Amino acid sequence: MMPRIETLTVGGSPMEVFLYEPAGTGPTPAIVLAMHIPGHDGIEKDEFTLKTAERLAEAGYVVAVPFIFHWWPKSEARDLKNREFRDDWTIADLTVTMDLLQGMERVDPARVGIVGHCWGGRVAWLGAATDTRYRACVVFYGGRIRLAMADQGIPAIERAGDIPCPVAGFFGNEDSNPSPEDVDIYEAALEDAGVPHEFHRYDGAGHAFQNFPSPERYCPAQSEDAWGKALAFLGRELRP
What we know:
Blueprint: E1 4-10, E2 13-20, E3 28-34, H1 47-58, E4 62-66, H2 78-84, H3 87-102, E5 107-117, H4 119-129, E6 136-140, E7 167-172, H5 180-193, E8 197-202, H6 220-238
């Protein structure tokens, strides 16, 4: 499946958005897919994110993948992007991506969710907490949710009470970022905020257990179980 590429301008910087559209006609639910850090040098080089977008489109969703690392040259070192990553920039990226989806004729603007893995899992939490238009949020092993980023804003977890939609989370019990203790804290924050949620935890799985381009991390059985549960969750929340 070949994406269509739109270029949006955020804070004076051009940002690519890869768009995947399912067969058929609308109105169709949509997903903002937040990239993980291995895609820092270009969506086109991020095999996992491209395949994830295709899989969501095949399930019937319009999928938008914003290149949230556009603030730096693609050739810039990953470590620098890690250190300088800012929530305020990311919120702006997600807002214009949501606006793009909302303006598409085949998208039902009342049925948009956000999904992310790893770094993108934190971005998905942040996006849901800063835009009331989301109707579902899926976090796959998102780390650093308890931390603030380089803009010295508040930690993403402190925004739990602003999340307007149900959250599904998927985590490996052998992960260290987030650790099982971190996941307990995530769940408690959602519980305290009254946010509906379902968390799924997998024995024998560590970080990035869905990341098939990394055989040392990929756990096929746990990954497929998580996919089935995530698609069921999105179906319940975003289908009429």
